[in-house]
Amino acid sequence: MSQVSLYDDRPVKQMVYPAVVFLIVGMFIGIFISYNGFLKPDAFAGEYIHFGRVRPVHVSVVTLLWLLSANMGLLYFIVPRLCGVPLWSVKLATATNVIWWPTLILGAFSLPLGTNFGWEYAELPKTLMGGLLPIKILLAIAWVLFAINLFMTIVNRRHEQMYVSLWYVMGTLVWTTFTFIVGNFAVEWVPQGISRVNTSFFYVHNLVGLIFTPMGLAIAYYFIPKISGTPIHSHRLSMVGFWSIAFVYAWIGAHHMLHGPQSQWLQTTSIIFSMWLIVPVWTVVTNLLGTIKARWEMYSKSVPLRFLTMGVVFYLIVCLQGSLQALRNVNELISKTDWIIGHAHMSLLGTFTYFAMGGVYYVIPKIVQKPLWSEKMADWHFNFTLLGSVVMFVALWVGGFQQGLMWANWATGSSYAQFHENVSRIPFLATVSAMWWWWFARLIGGVFIFTGSFLFVLNVMNTIILPVENPERMQA
Amino acid sequence: MKKWFSKLEWSAFLTLLGVVALFSTAIAVTLIAPGYIDPSWQRPSSTYQVQMYEVSDPNVYFSTANPGRWGLQYVYHLKDGFTLMAFRESPLVRLLADPELEPYVTRLNDEELKLTTRVLLLRRPSESEEIRNLQNQLQMAWKQEHPEQEFPPHFDILELFDPEKKEAFALGETDGIVEHWIDNHFTIIGQKPTYTTSKGVIYVNNPKEYTVSESNYLGSKYWLYNENGEPIENLHELKSGKLGFLSRQELIQKGEDIYRVEGCWYCHTDQTRTLVQDTVLNGSSDFPAPPSSASEYIFQRVTFPGTRRIGPDLSRVGVKRPHRDWHISHFWSPKTESLGSIMPSFKHFFDNDPAGTLPHPYTIPNYRFEAIFHYLMTKGTRITPPTQAWWQGKDPIHTIDIIEGR
User: Fold this and answer.
1) pLDDT at residue number B9
2) Are residues A133 and A261 in the same domain?
3) What does the domain layout of chain B look like in residue ranges?
């Protein structure tokens, strides 16, 4: 019980509680656009609800309002415990969160009204209300306050040795600040045209690679040994993994523009570093799976460990895909198809959302001093989510691959007349219509995931709100 | 501070230092260096591209107030010492000019095109015996040359006059997408504008004075083009009031904003990649589209290369779909215009029709339609001058040879 007095978990609650609610809000919007944008286009028609206006809301809600916020909440939990000291300033954390939530909510839900910034993953408006509310500057300030708070906690730590999660946390605090400024501000400081595109894709890639990856790995590196009750497989491997990430990620943004209007040498550079990516990924995966393997029976006993383990598996797949997709001949087939959508969902949903869900399942009972409301419901959450995820990913990959093959078919033959004949026979829109059943499968997968996540939120909220019926259970 | 550093042990300090150092190197090489190493990232694709964006776009105006009802009107803003104008006869156009203005007229058999930046205008001469005789003479001559044709055409007879103003407004004569361009056999009489290059110039062909008069339609008053109306006094008058003209530059920028906030870029890519399938998809029936180059994007504030192709690529749409009417029907109802399309309809690009008597299903396209249309029409049409355009088979990088494996 000494932990209660040492750690004040209000900042964790301030971030995690709203985040889990926004998880299902974001997923519901995802289901809406997969129906209204693809299966029955314009079933609900209108200026403010068509696909182009609602898609950025889905992306912003699930990436920022859910994933980034939940991860920040989990870091408020992890960092003080790894340092053996309370958070540097709970007041500062509360102030940070008070800036964070309204800014982000207003920013994300203003998008259908026509405030889209125009650069991918940086859609939030620069300002709202005629410039009175500088959304992006406020977010940057909130992040810097968050970083100061965690850095000061680390500086004041009691345990000399820094666990690998802390390395990742420090990395993410520095990288995110840089990356956010580059993608949201510097993109307008560089010359117009491809310089801006290149800067934007640097941000797009590093949002995943240098913000969500180190945060997610910090979480996985903390909770996997905690839950399975074994020390980390190898400290040396974790160092290799960390430093190679630092070395590799910032170089590979340009692989989003392969075959595009961008210098060949830059494309080649990004391909080489994309191959290098295999090093950090395999070390991390070996390390984490090696840790789980030591207590493999825990996989069936613990739902959070199941999420964390499947997150690691998806991490391996998504990063292997990432490297292979950067090869020119693979990229030619799958780039600009639904494969990419499947890939993006596997990284942010399959990997980092799974990590965060595992973390939330572990953290909630600890911070409310009550057992999880229903283990069984958590089981169903996992089953629904995993099933839905696999259906969605596979549908998007196969559909995307098929569309890529149909496009490549236009290039069969040896004369322009033949190429042109190919396009006349299978026009572009035929390759869109061919996707219908894959999009249907994607929606089914999405409904499963949403159902699972709904159980998750219900479970978490009941744990928080409902009194413990049988106090004996806490002891058991 | 001392406390900070003494507690921050050496390894942690090295970590931070290492992270910052590696990150900075990556930024220097992948973000900062390319713009300097590869000049095409900031160099225009052609002098035509520069003149379109910097000379033509700010000085061509489009009516955005109810253009759907009476057809689009567009107007060149002619400026003394800046706008190049040509007064050129063609088989069906004859020009009358005083001896003082005769040097500015390019007659049918002249070898060189005469251009000037002196503000002169064409107008229809008032009816007279002389004009009727000229029309008859021309028609007789035509009949002798074309004995197989029963009816001679009506010749356009216009007179050149000096409005004695520093600026004037003239009716547009092109399609509003590709402007008149000449790269050899031309002379400039008088002052040469600063943008003139030996590679060619954009000019306004046969500017006809833009005059308007007030009309009534169902009780509301509208200004309309009328040959016998009053000339426009100044830019302020053109831009304000019922006609509400916007320059093509303003429309293109608004169009880019619309493309951005409507999220067009989530479904449409804006790049012809260096892949056979892309050059074929965007190509015409005879020629493949050249792959996009970095220099095509330098006049855009936001560039949308795109990551997903749910709708067709738009990097050559100005060549593939140049017709305004097609875009009007398509934005109104994409599903019926393109079979199999899943694009949402954009009915907010249209205003209500107060009378409800229009002979077509869509209502009146508003300025948002004009904006997105002109933005789209920049795509693929401005890489090279129209005389050396890829759609005429004059692709500078010989895409067809590459993709056919020669």
Assistant:
1) 67
2) yes
3) 74-242, 248-403
